[in-house]
Amino acid sequence: MADFSVQGLTKLIGEKTVFDGLSFLIHPLDRIGLLGVNGTGKTTLLNILSGLTGFDGDVSPFNQPRDFTINYLAQEPDFDGERTILETVLDENLPQMRAIINFEKSLSDLTKLEKAQAEMERLSAWQIEADVKSILTKLGLSALTEKIGTLSGGQKRRVQLAQALINPSDLLLLDEPTNHLDVETTLWLQNYLKNAKRTVLFVTHDRYFLDAVATRIFELENAKLQEYQGNYQDYLAQKSARESFETAATHKAQQLYKSELVWIRKSPQARSTKQQARIDRFETLKDSLKTEKITGDMELNIASTRLGKKVIQFQKASFHYPKTPERQIFRDFDLIVQPHARLGIIGDNGVGKSTLLNIIAGDKPLTAGTLEIGETVNIGYFSQEIRELDENKRIINFLEDVASASQTLSGETVSIVNLLEQFLFPRSTHGTPISKLSGGEKKRLYLLKILLLQPNVLLLDEPTNDLDIATLTVLENFLAQFPGAVITVSHDRYFQDKVSNELLAFENGTIAHYIGSYSDYLAVKTTEKEAEKAETTPVSAAPIRAPKSENRMTYVEKKEWATIEDDIMTLEAQIEEIDAAMLKSASDYGKLAVFQKEKELLSATLDEKYTRWEILSQKEH
Known about the structure:
Layout: E1 4-13, E2 16-26, E3 31-35, H1 42-50, E4 62-63, E5 70-73, H2 85-89, H3 95-106, H4 110-122, H5 126-138, H6 153-166, E6 171-175, H7 183-195, E7 200-203, H8 207-213, E8 216-221, E9 224-229, H9 232-266, H10 273-290, E10 312-320, E11 328-337, E12 342-346, H11 353-360, E13 368-373, E14 379-382, H12 395-400, E15 405-407, E16 413-415, H13 416-422, H14 439-452, E17 457-461, H15 469-481, E18 485-489, H16 493-499, E19 502-507, E20 510-515, H17 518-536, H18 555-584, H19 589-617
Parallel strand pairs: 3-7, 3-8, 5-6, 6-7, 12-18, 12-19, 14-17, 17-18
Antiparallel strand pairs: 1-2, 1-4, 8-9, 10-11, 10-13, 15-16, 19-20
Helix pairs in contact: 3-4, 5-6, 9-10, 18-19
């Protein structure tokens, strides 16, 4: 299959230039992570590539093979509520998918079953049917005849994901595929995409997922697209090197600008040919510095009110919904939240994690037991659904209704205008109606509103949904220095690892308390599952053999051990040289392809050396 080429893609929305002549190539089997601050056009780009939204201009910027197909997991499902899961998931325009639908429908009608089986045989659809059922089972969608209209929002999202994965395509577009997925399903999707030999362009806030899946990174910034080779770690290293170079270049340009400014002020009437050339150069420099990226580094430096020793305490607490008293969300739950707690809440979808936050926030009462909230507690609740965000108001007016200014952690006063700029809302956007913002920008504004009220206890319910990675990184750093308590519901492994050091885990109708990170918890659970499997697996009697001295190195292994560390250092240095070369040749696709192939070979060799080093290091030298 040939490359999918985009040349000179331009898009304006209102007066805002979203894309200014974007050009890029998508190679077969690429897995590309699409990054960018909320509002830079990630979803807009996916919408244009999928054909949901048009591009500007009369000439198509796309060049792809004939019959090139694209499947798209958009953020919002658009389904017919009367159709079944199976009918929705499978594309009836494809003969094999139509045969599978007919076969499933005929299982209860023996007169039609034989004909349906023959059609499955003729189209060699049995393996496809097995793959379809495997994907649906992994996504928790085994009730194939259930109607879409009866499903929850999270279940509809899984149906939508199944639809995108199951039907064949040349390019798969995924917008936040891990939203509403638990950790186990996220790990399954991660492994599926790595092994499925699909070409994928995806947007995600899950950095572990991004790092594991991506082979290239596209970043949108200032209406342009910058490419990076490799996964998220490679992107961070390359971006850091690029920005260091750009900072040095910008500093030189600013120094030159200052010297030109001195000259131009001294000679305002000068108009000779040479002087005019200097004037032209001055204007070019001035324009280039004006167009320096306005995003900068987002900041979070907002004070909170004083928090006393008593924060939150549950005693013998129980809760069930009035309509389902037989289903206890939790029972006899005890918990004392300390003033500096960093508490993560984890568990499967629907077990009651958000309900627990709603109870703490006062939105729901306990059905038994007590909940005490300290007198000095000022709760800021960042819920999944944006609350009290008047979309008819303009950004600046909305925040000025909350507070006229804000205090920083050091006691300084910051104006709302400056605070908005720190939150990546340029001054030119402050008069924008909230209804014009993207979903992620609304979430960022919602977060700012909550922090303006100076809470000392933060409740965060799936904060990573719809927030970009740049915002999440800054939020994580803010939470690290936040003087109050933080309680977070999130399936995002990376975010939980960064912000939580103890966990409440909803497990089998109880809430277990763990000390440690989310990754520590998952490792414990994996070990427990493996131990359970080992107990249930029959062990066959092995013949008794004379012990061998397998823990001693052979002569050949000793020679290998003598040089292996030097080999590893050499390979690492060679990979660093290739990374630097790729950075210099970022716009030369031919060179990049050659460098990428060299890097992959060296990386594979390095992985083998690490494995051998680990094996040899455990033997007697």
